[in-house]
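All the exercises in this workshop are built on plain-text protein records. The record below serves as our worked example for the rest of this section.
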Amino acid sequence: MCTSLGYKDAAGNAYFGRTLELTMDLPYQIVHFPAGFETTSEIPDHPSLKFSARYAVLAVTMPDRMPTAAAPTTIADLKVLEGLNDQGLTFSLLSYPAAGGKQKAFDVTQAVLSASDLGAWALGQFASVAEVKAALADQPVMLQPLGLLGGVESPFHYVVHDASGAAAVIEFDHGLMTVYDNPVGVMTNGPKFDWHLTNLDNYTFLSNVDKPSATFGSYKAVQPDSGIATAGLPSSNTSVGRFVRAAYYAQFTEKAASPDLAVQTLAHVMNNFDRPRGATIDYPEAGGGHMEVKGLESSGSEPYATEFTCWTSLSDLDRKLFFVRDYRSLNFTCFDLAALAGATVPTVIPLQKLAGGANDATDMLKGAPRN
């Protein structure tokens, strides 16, 4: 469903990448929320929680309801799934079906933050993971039934990274919120985050050093090429397998010598988690679970569901650059938060407008010198 990981270059600068997988295309919107943008978070039977963004935010968003002719969606309906603010803090929403469950009651006189607004709140208000953690100690957050998902209660956990390389996971398990420091900088989906860390204890043998030969009796076996070091990695696209693979690539991938090379390197890393349609399929009668959006169930005539990488994003936390590529694109599109400084109103671009194939250099080749 989703894979996220942090990466550092040779100078220690931090970067972040994530993929999002579903069985359908959704109306994702790229939004720039300027500093000063006001958000109101509503929880029934509680006072509204209003906050004004201290920092500008670039985000991939989704509307929290289906538009109608009488009530089209507005900027207030767009909820942050992934984003970067102008201080180098990132926020990511990742699927976690076990998040639901009865939460403790909060004082009805207390303003409570809806989990759907957690991204706007964190990115708009804070510059670091430490600040987010400190604020969450005093700010109650409530899971809410989501009409787009058939009424399930915010089936997600949330990941924040900052420019120092610090990372944390905000997790609701059966209604109980826990905030974990993330020492590996990696997250996928269920089970719980601390389970994933314990599972890494089973992979202490992993190394990026190939062992190209071995002796069996009097026979010396020799590998025909390189790459045997990855033989111990889980090969499945389950959340458990992807977590281990993400931890491996975050740990062992070469630390790039420059920021531009670092972004390219991170793109190569994230390609390991890119899923084409049909690579794995699930028939409904087999009981496979997927996150379905009401009214936008898996499209097509196939009698099965297939998860695919709807989009991949990369964040350069030092230079405040955000890159995104959807399923129909071969190349990433870049947004520079610093260049958007000074904006006073939000701006929106549908993600599908950024889709594109390869650059065509045929004419350039036609005009090249002939030997």
Summary: The longest strand covers residues 14-22. The chain has six helices and 22 strands. The CA atoms of residues 101 and 347 lie 36 Å apart.
